[in-house]
């Protein structure tokens, strides 16, 4: 067993934000290194995840999980290596990914572990991105809810994001025409060159709707929606008979309490015999390895591209979620812990 | 072959309505009795159907069928008996149901016939109601889109209507708790006593939402929606995880052009991993007999109740659609043609 430091660096939720959590809502503290009890093991985190959903985890409104308590370690996925174990199922050197929190060391009894990371030939950080919740979400949401068929037109919003870029590429691998909705010239370029979309449209441009219609000459069969709001309203108007709208995220709407108003979709869904369906990746937890296996195969043979943005050191954590909402990131955002963290 | 009259009574669309078609938009005319060509047969209609969807059939906006032309026979389902045939597949005496129009006699080459009515032990009018599009719609929309499971709570709007009452009863037969949304004391009574709902709530009462919540102590698993609008908004707020919202009609919203505003459902569908899906019975045309066979069995053994409202004579036709929208009917509205029609 490696020699452990005396203290553990942790990012705590200092106060509860209204809306997007900012740097000021967090504080980094040093706490005593935990002592393992029987049935526990200690993980040295190498990468901490940063994702939009974490905004919901710190807000008071009941969402699909209880909010992080003020004063508690910020909830997050993280990936690391087991450095000490009193658990028969985990050994020193095991690579694991799970809900380990924004901290350097995490004690687990196994219940917070999502999986052992077995892809030793691939970077550990991928278990937080394209081989993690992002990729697994894209895989099941697209294939199980979107049900793409060869020749379908599949439109993806936040198409350059870590979920969207995977969804678009999986749709292309399924034989679909893929259309990206993204913002700004650099993300347009990424969508077309890095992620292989057949077309890309810029929601920030004045001619967005015309460009969208032009990019979908045969209408829209699957809409993989990460945004909601005006972007989605435009796509929904152009769905085909029998279309599937996958609600995977609502990034463009900042507040859902009270529910904002928008155009009613009922008549349109009826006339098109179309469906709109929400997707929660937790419902597919029992099939996680099935998705990772597919995704890892595509990563290895080069047919699934990904992009990571690696922030260095725990000091980057407090502002990292706010940065996502400022749209400053390109690719899956992770924090790589440093020896001194 | 029975002796045929010289003329055929027909209801023509006289002018195109904006909104709900009124009596003044139709006229009854006598036209020469058609002469059969080879491959054709003549149906003497006994019952003409009256249904809310006919409003859409006469309006100019492209819906899911072309509008009835001004001066054309009003499109409708009808049921009758073959009285002359030059078609090898149809013989005198065959009972048929199809898109035969609001007229006493209809020529067909078979393409307008939906089915031969083989349930000789049951009234022919049922082929326009509980054993017709209404029943078949309720059957497939509930079972294929709603996917009811034993113990589920199923809420039905326009629960006393010809589609809703069938949907509610089929849900009860599937082992569900069924909750009716309807308007006024007589329809409340029908829902509880005639159609066997476990609970009924009156959307016209001030305490509607509270009553709805009380009637669904375990939340809502399936919402069979015939109304849209404020009624549906109340139900949607109380759906359970994994709920299915079947969009079968939008009777409470009078105008969809432009799309009216309502509360955005995306976040809620996401949080609940729920779906909202439109249903068009035409998509199940190839499985029509499967549904009729089930429904007829339930009618025969008394487990599926229905209610008809029979208007006498073609003179009742012009005002019959408007009457539906005035809410004056109880049960599936049909027009029984008289000998002089």
From TrEMBL, chains A, B:
InterPro entries reported for this sequence: ADH-like_C, ADH_N_2, ER, GroES-like_sf, MDR_fam, NAD(P)-bd_dom_sf
EC class of the enzyme, as a word: oxidoreductase
EC number: 1.-.-.-
Keywords, sorted A to Z: Oxidoreductase
Domain (Enoyl reductase (ER)): residue spans on this chain: 19-335
Keyword Oxidoreductase in record: yes
Ion transport keyword on record: no
Pfam families, alphabetized: ADH_N_2, ADH_zinc_N
Molecular function as annotated in GO: oxidoreductase activity
Name the record gives this protein: NADP-dependent oxidoreductase
């Amino acid at each position: 067993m490696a020699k452990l430091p005396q203290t553990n660096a942790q990012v705590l939720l200092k106060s509860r934000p209204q809306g997007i959590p900012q740097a000021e809502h967090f504080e980094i503290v040093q706490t005593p290194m935990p002592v393992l009890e029987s049935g526990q093991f200690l993980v040295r985190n190498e990468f901490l995840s940063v994702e939009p959903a974490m905004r919901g985890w710190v807000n008071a409104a009941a969402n699909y999980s209880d909010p992080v308590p003020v004063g508690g370690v910020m909830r997050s996925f993280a990936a690391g290596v087991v450095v000490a174990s009193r658990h028969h199922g985990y050994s020193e050197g095991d690579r694991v990914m799970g809900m380990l929190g924004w901290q350097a060391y995490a004690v687990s009894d196994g219940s917070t572990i999502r999986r052992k990371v077995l892809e030793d030939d691939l970077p550990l950080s991928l278990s937080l991105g394209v081989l993690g919740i992002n990729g697994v979400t894209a895989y099941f949401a697209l294939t199980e809810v979107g049900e793409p068929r060869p020749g379908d037109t599949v439109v993806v919003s936040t198409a350059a994001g870590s979920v969207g870029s995977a969804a678009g590429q999986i749709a292309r691998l399924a034989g679909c025409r893929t259309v990206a909705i993204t913002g700004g010239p650099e993300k347009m370029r990424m969508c077309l060159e890095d992620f292989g979309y057949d077309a890309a449209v810029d929601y920030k441009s004045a001619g967005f709707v015309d460009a969208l219609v032009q990019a979908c000459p045969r209408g829209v069969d699957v809409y993989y929606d990460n945004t909601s709001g005006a972007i989605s309203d435009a796509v929904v108007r152009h769905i085909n008979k029998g279309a599937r709208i996958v609600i995977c995220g609502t990034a463009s709407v900042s507040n859902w309490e009270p529910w904002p108003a928008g155009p009613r979709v009922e008549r349109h869904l009826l006339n098109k015999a179309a469906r709109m369906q929400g997707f929660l990746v937790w419902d597919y937890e029992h099939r996680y390895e099935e998705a990772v296996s597919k995704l890892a195969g595509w990563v290895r043979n080069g047919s699934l591209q990904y992009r990571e943005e690696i922030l260095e050191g725990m000091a980057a954590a407090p502002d990292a979620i706010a940065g996502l909402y400022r749209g400053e990131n390109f690719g899956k955002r992770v924090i790589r812990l440093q020896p001194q963290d």
